[in-house]
Amino acid sequence: MNITTVGSVCSGIEAASVAWEPLGLRFEWFSEIASFPSQVLKARYPDIENLGDMNDIPEKLKNNLISTPDLICGGTPCQAFSLAGWKNGLNDDRGNLALKFVDIVEANDTQRLKKGISPSIVFWENVEGVLTDKTNAFGCLVSSLAGLSNVIDIRKWPNAGVIYGPKRNVAWRVLDAKFFGLPQQRKRLCLLAGGTDFFPENVLFEKHINDLQEFPETKLTFEKDGHRFEVFREYTDCLYSAYGTKWNGNAAAYNGSLFIVQDERIRRLSPLECERLMGFPDNYTNIKGAKKTNRYQALGNSWAVPVVKWIGKQLINYTGDKFNLNKYNLSLSGRTYPIKNEGLFIDFGKDLVYINEDLTLNCTSIPENCIFSDMRDIVSADAQKDIYISPVGCYGIIRRKQERNLKINPRLEEVLLSISSQMTPEEIEKRSRVQKRGRFSKKIDNEADTKHNVESSDDVNKESDLMTV
């Protein structure tokens, strides 16, 4: 497929550039307003203009102030569709940026049409939560992209689907990064759209030939670079934007998947390890003046590079419609919903879908050809001292588990108890009282609650229950 130029919206730290530049795609402009990601873009891509606010892009396109690329990609803020953002969807200004993204695509295609150029290809990535957003933001997005007169209103959208519309065809599929060479369970919605002669399902869906694989078992204890490591699971839970800066109250805190034991001390992942966990080159975010919190946040908000690269390869190798899915296919009759006088919506669920004796479609989060890596490829022996968790912090996790009657990885509990035993209960109690405790704590000391903990390694006691973003 003849795609050579890209415009990137909500660029972040540019996972798309890392994934697609080696494939020969050329990025003509970025759009990012956050300070640290903008600094990363300037440091890594000094010759590519950052347009700043995406709200200004449609007007710039209409006035021919910027180029009209062959592909527009973006990941409008996911917080409006995640638990951390309270799922406000289109009631949140960040959710409305999804529709501004459509305005950019429309303005780009209008200018391309004037030049006699075919419509652009659209790639959009977001969290799974958008599929169940109570304001039907996803329905608004796909209906607008397809050019429908009315919004398709579905309470729970499928993990994979296709819409054939009067203006564009749209397809989407949820993919999990842990099957693409990263030991991180990171399920994300990937959407492709293009003109009515483009069939994006041929890029995102696959002909099912191989058995679907499971993530392999690997050793949880190993040595590397003269150090002994232990992890608590073969792959981590989803890396989130506040990782390393605030207490995380979700499952990852108690299954241990975002902790590492190094030489009998437990710690968080380092920024370098987070880069590897997302598929970025080592020290990609380690620019002049970068703080760990900046790097953690930027990485947690980014895309899994190998997943985006896989889509890029599939897109480049696209040669036309091979699946020929249409309303006359009896095997899809129970999944097909005509859109009066305008098009068709096909619900592919999240499984393998039988089409005929020669074709079964893989619409799962697992690709036909998986690539696996494990935590041995991720860990680094030169982790900073301030990401280790103190005995007080270790005991804080145990205390919280007991107060809330939570389940915990048995081995993680052993490690936490072992480290916390390095201090007496009296000393732990004394030190922990300088940190404000959560509302679930059985013991409240009003005087101590007014003080602040000066040990950043004890942040695990904070009452900031942030879910994965």
UniProtKB/TrEMBL annotation:
<protein>
    <recommendedName>
        <fullName>DNA (cytosine-5-)-methyltransferase</fullName>
        <ecNumber>2.1.1.37</ecNumber>
    </recommendedName>
</protein>
<dbReference type="InterPro" id="IPR001525">
    <property type="entry name" value="C5_MeTfrase"/>
</dbReference>
<dbReference type="GO" id="GO:0032259">
    <property type="term" value="P:methylation"/>
</dbReference>
<dbReference type="Pfam" id="PF00145">
    <property type="entry name" value="DNA_methylase"/>
</dbReference>
<feature type="active site">
    <location>
        <position position="78"/>
    </location>
</feature>
<feature type="region of interest" description="Disordered">
    <location>
        <begin position="427"/>
        <end position="469"/>
    </location>
</feature>
<dbReference type="GO" id="GO:0004519">
    <property type="term" value="F:endonuclease activity"/>
</dbReference>
<dbReference type="InterPro" id="IPR050750">
    <property type="entry name" value="C5-MTase"/>
</dbReference>
<keyword id="KW-0378">Hydrolase</keyword>
<feature type="compositionally biased region" description="Basic and acidic residues">
    <location>
        <begin position="442"/>
        <end position="469"/>
    </location>
</feature>
<dbReference type="InterPro" id="IPR018117">
    <property type="entry name" value="C5_DNA_meth_AS"/>
</dbReference>
<keyword id="KW-0489">Methyltransferase</keyword>
<comment type="similarity">
    <text>Belongs to the class I-like SAM-binding methyltransferase superfamily. C5-methyltransferase family.</text>
</comment>
<keyword id="KW-0680">Restriction system</keyword>
<dbReference type="InterPro" id="IPR029063">
    <property type="entry name" value="SAM-dependent_MTases_sf"/>
</dbReference>
<keyword id="KW-0949">S-adenosyl-L-methionine</keyword>
<keyword id="KW-0255">Endonuclease</keyword>
<dbReference type="GO" id="GO:0003886">
    <property type="term" value="F:DNA (cytosine-5-)-methyltransferase activity"/>
</dbReference>
<dbReference type="GO" id="GO:0009307">
    <property type="term" value="P:DNA restriction-modification system"/>
</dbReference>
<keyword id="KW-0540">Nuclease</keyword>
<keyword id="KW-0808">Transferase</keyword>
